[in-house]
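Archive entry: two folds, one per protein. Generate the first.
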Amino acid sequence: MSESPAVPKQNDAATRPGLIRVALQSPSFMVGIVLTLCFTLAALVSFVWTPFDVTQLVISDKLKTPSGLHWFGTDNFGRDIFSMVMVGARTSIAVALIAVSIGICAGVPLGLLAAARHGSLLDEVIMRTNDLVFAFPALLMAIMITAVFGPGAINAIIAIGIFNIPVFARLARGAALSLWTRDYVLAARVSGKGPARISAEHILPNITNLLIVQGTIQFSLGILAEAGLAYVGLGTQPPLPSWGRMLSDAQTMIYIAPHMAIFPGLAIVFTVLGLNLMGDGMRDIFDPKLRRAR
């Protein structure tokens, strides 16, 4: 009985020795991961401790400027803004993480399926449906969803998650199409493997790096989308703090208490900046051509 031809394994940049050393030498990656870890740590700590109860209203302490007791000051209800920023980090990260996970879990298989059936009716249906979904921004989709089910974090997650599906489907399909003509894929087909098995064993491992980088970018966009939805009242609802709703509450107090807008605004800026820098650094690390250029 003849043996099936051996299928070579592709070793991408992520499996090469010295990857950690390259990461440590990337300024973008290091700055990005430090900023991201800071806000992730704040979100995790907020589950067990915050300096003040974010649901407690202390009218006598309202609109206090930053001090040793209230590091970021207080809002118009006397709530500690530093504590609210910590809990808001938890909310933003959770919403964005779940939404991106929805996009990956649904979009990547669709993209791999479309690539495996390239040129067929199924490929055309998947991609045209993706184009239709992609035509609706997350905010507009959230408005339609909340018009039926009402505002809330769950509906914001659904809206952002649906918006992420065509992003990952397009990326997975485009990257997979470039691999289906490679020799190791042709060898796998000769050995009798079907499209589904080839996609899982040979295509997906070699596009994982692209998906990770895109995931960090969509994560940052998810945080912005969550803040935008909360700002217009479609996202996280009281009493749970949200950076976007904190900015919405601060807009009428901007001249009286600018610190109400400054600190949640900076939280959004530095979190998104950290994720984008980390994604940019990961792209440089995983792409050997970019590493050689540097």
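Generate the second and append.
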Amino acid sequence: MVQTEKEIVADLKAGKFRPVYLLTGEENYYIDLVSNFFEKNVIAADFRDFDQTVVYGPEVDMPTVIDLAKRYPMMSPVQLVLVKEAQGIARDWELLAKYLENPQPQTVLVFCYRHKKLNKNSKAYKAINSVGVVFEKNKLRDYEVPGWIANVVQKKGYSITQTGAVLIAESLGNDLGKIANELSKVYISMPEGGTINEDVIETNIGISKEYNAFELQNAIGRRDVVQCNKIVNHFAANPKDNPIQLVIASLYGYFIKVMLYHQEPDKNKAASVLKVSPYFLKDYEKAAQNYSLGKLASCIGYLYEADLKSKGVRNNGTISDGEILKELVFKIIH
């Protein structure tokens, strides 16, 4: 059966255990979240040395895992066998299907299968889905990350400004684990129920509230030449903090949204079509006024050229990323 992380946690708290769990997908944050809950809550702390076993896929084979699963607990009602990096077990998954025909009833066997997915047509997957639980989580789309940040912050008892959530998402991407780690630095300095704004983010995470990809795209949208030059010069002086590939990717997504705004006949639906907060819609409206569809198509071409140069195509190494970025923004705003 397929379950969400909330359903799995609720069952574990109620003492309802399945013989096998497959935690899989592209989003490692949730695999770690659920795996950590198993480690900390299935076996009482005093008995973990006896009845909790953690192994790693690249270091074991499936016969060893099954032998561990067939043992009986010594001190607890059940034993936990947790297989991390299970994708490293390259062979013999069909043996798992055979074991699950008659699993040891006092064993909770958990596989953390990262980065890729177990073949859904395999006997092992079908057996897990039949007698156990499959938990699968894929990467969030970029536009979903600000909302995720707001929800996570709210669950911690704080709030965050919309601009702050977008600033973090634009700067850190969709690596939820990295975002969660950075937010943990913020919570330490926040009063209970406090609001995380751009100043707090800059102080605690180090993301400049003025010099970032989000502010660059807004300055470009306004055709604010002075602000564009200030931000680009800062990026050129700090290339490690502002990798050109990430800036180009951010601008590409931005121009695609402006093109969509241009072509949406019902502007009341534009926020939904662009998958942005209505709060930011005025910025896209202003950009659409400043950039025709033809100019936007040219901007996409400029981004493509800059991306090639940043990767060494038509660039013998004499042109720095900062110079490429300056040329790119000049072409865009003029």
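Annotation attached to the second fold: The radius of gyration is 25 Å. The longest strand covers residues 107-114.
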